[in-house]
Amino acid sequence: MTARVLSSVRVFLIALIAISTTAFAAPKAELWPYWQQSNEANTLPINHQIWQDLLNRYLSQQDSQTLVNYRNFSDDDKWQLDRYLRDMSKLNPLEYRKAEQFAYWVNLYNALTVKLIVDNYPLKSITKLGGVFSFGPWNDDVVTINGKTLTLNDIEHRILRPIWQDNRIHYAVNCASLGCPNLQPHAFTASNSDHLLNLAAKQFINSAKGVEVQANEVTLSSIYDWYASDFGNESQLEQHLNQYRTTPIKLQNVDYDYDWALNEAK
Hints:
- The chain has one domain (32-257).
- 43% of the residues lie in helices and 11% in strands.
- It has helices at residues 3-22, 49-58, 75-90, 98-120, 152-164, 193-205, 223-226, 228-231, 234-244; strands at residues 59-62, 65-68, 141-145, 148-151, 211-214, 217-221, 254-257.
- It has a three-stranded mixed β-sheet with strand order 5-6-7. It has a two-stranded antiparallel ribbon with strand order 1-2. Strands 3-4 form a two-stranded antiparallel ribbon.
- InterPro entries: DUF547 (IPR006869).
C-alpha cells in the first residue's frame, strides 16, 4: 500500500472517529411489548440494599455535582456490585407491580453504568467505551433478564421511556458524566420514586448544567435537544422548567451544551 493510500485511509479513519465522538443521536422511544406485563397484585418489594450501601460509600457531593469515587472501589465492593447485578438478573420483573418495576429498571441501569466505569477505570469519559466507531457503550449487551439480552439503550428507550412516558426519567438514569443529572444518593423504590424524580428534576433544572441564564441568552442541557419529543415544543419545555425553577425563566436565544467528562470524585 502506497504512502498516499495510507495517508488517505488515516484521514478517513480520523474523520469517522471525529464524527462518532461529536455527533450524538438520541434513540427514539420504541416499545418492547414483552416488558409491559406486570402483576399488580404482588405487593412484595425488591431488595436494593446492596446498591444503597454502595451509594452510601462511594458518592460525594461537591457543589451542585454528585460525584462517584470510582478510583477507590474496593475488590470486595466490586464483588458486591456484581452480586447485586446477579441478584437483579435472576429476578423476573414482570412478576412485580409497575411501581416496583420502575425502581428496578432505574437502579439496574445506574448500577450497570457504574460497573462499566469501575471495570474500565481509569478513563476520562464513558464515551471512550464501546467499539472503535461507537460513541459510548449504550448499544453493548450488558445484562440478561428472563433469557433476553439487553443493552442500556434497551432499558432506557425500549422499556422506561415508552412504558412510563414520564420525561422525569431523564433525571433518573445516569450516564456517568458531569453534564448528566446527578446519580441520586438513594436507591429508587416503589414508595420513593415520585419524590426522587421531582427532587432530581429540581436539582438539575436549578443547576448550571441544566439551565444557565446569562443576560438575554439561555444555555440548556443538550438533553432538552436530544429528547425534545419528550418535553414538547418551546412553550411546553418552558412550562416544564419553570415548574421546578426557583427563578422562572423565559426561553430566548437558546443554545445547548453537555459535558461528557467523567463524574468522578477526585
